[in-house]
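Budget justification aside, the reviewers requested a transparent look at the raw inputs and outputs of the sequence design task funded under Objective 1. We therefore reproduce one unedited record. The lines immediately below are the structure tokens for a 291-residue chain.
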């Protein structure tokens, strides 16, 4: 049986660099009405909220996280992952990490009103400067916003896939060391160095000949590009990561992201194993970060 742990171990072994690790998270989405295993519910965060990029980071370091509408710290991620309706006009019911960053820089204190999912969807949050809404900025009065105007924001958002209408009760993030037979992931997310990404694509194409997509968004990379997109399309996607992944979750400057549907992960690993003599990874410049 192909378990996440077995496949992960085979993947890193196929690179033939002793001691090399690739930060990896497995993602399982639970629809409303679908039973959630008790062991998964044990990892539901209650005291704080976490963004999806933080949840991925935690899972990659051996700390599983179960996100729901109640504890997701990023409204955009809640939209992408199908936890809330993107057209909801009322704010979510508790402070969220991402919008608390807005509140802090706004200096409005209790007068700050968090944006609703609809305000993210409309683009006004991301075009905050042009829209005359500095309280939605993240970096103070000189913040340009994420896009120059609302039309540009709307164009960008229209290309960010989301599981809508919302149908998810929760999303579970876990690492290779979490072993529970009834928890089968839908998507595998890897934080790879460019040299590793090169080799992974070569391994996948060795067996399939199929191209690998790269939809690169400045925002929502972890939740939309690396989870929702592979889940909805059934195709691998590559991302250069996003603002939240870098500044909130702290993903390092030499890391990119790769989102792989679970159905393709075993195929990729097999391709890595069978093609290792044709693509000698140990000879690639920078392949061994331990030297």
């Amino acid at each position: 049986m192909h378990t996440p742990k077995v496949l992960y171990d085979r993947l890193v072994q196929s690179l033939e660099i002793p001691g090399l690790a690739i930060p990896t998270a497995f993602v399982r989405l639970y629809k409303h009405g679908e039973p959630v295993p008790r062991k998964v519910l044990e990892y539901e965060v209650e005291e704080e909220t976490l963004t999806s990029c933080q949840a991925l980071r935690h899972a990659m370091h051996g700390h599983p996280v179960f996100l729901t509408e109640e504890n997701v710290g990023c409204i955009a991620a809640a939209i992408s992952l199908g936890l809330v309706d993107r057209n909801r006009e009322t704010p979510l019911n508790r402070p969220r990490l991402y919008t608390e960053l807005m509140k802090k820089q706004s200096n409005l204190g209790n007068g700050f009103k968090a944006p609703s999912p609809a305000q993210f969807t409309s683009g006004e949050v991301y075009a905050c400067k042009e829209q005359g809404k500095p309280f939605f900025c993240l970096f103070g009065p000189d913040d340009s916003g994420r896009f120059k105007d609302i039309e540009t924001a709307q164009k960008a958002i229209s290309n960010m896939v989301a599981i809508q209408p919302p149908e998810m009760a929760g999303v579970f993030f876990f690492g290779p060391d979490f072993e529970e037979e009834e928890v089968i992931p839908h998507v595998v997310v890897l934080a790879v160095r460019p040299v590793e990404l090169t080799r992974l694509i070569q391994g996948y194409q060795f067996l399939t000949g199929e191209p690998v997509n790269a939809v690169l968004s400045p925002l929502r990379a972890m939740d939309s590009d690396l989870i929702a997109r592979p889940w909805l399309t059934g195709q691998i996607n590559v991302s250069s990561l996003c603002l939240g992944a870098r500044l909130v979750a702290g993903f390092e400057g030499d890391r990119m992201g790769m989102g792989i549907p679970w159905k393709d992960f075993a195929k990729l690993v097999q391709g890595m194993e069978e093609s290792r003599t044709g693509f000698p990874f140990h000879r690639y410049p920078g392949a061994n970060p331990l030297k």
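The first helix runs from residue 4 to 14. The beta strands are 24-31, 65-67, 168-174, 187-192, 237-239, 256-261. Computational costs for records of this kind are itemized in the attached budget.
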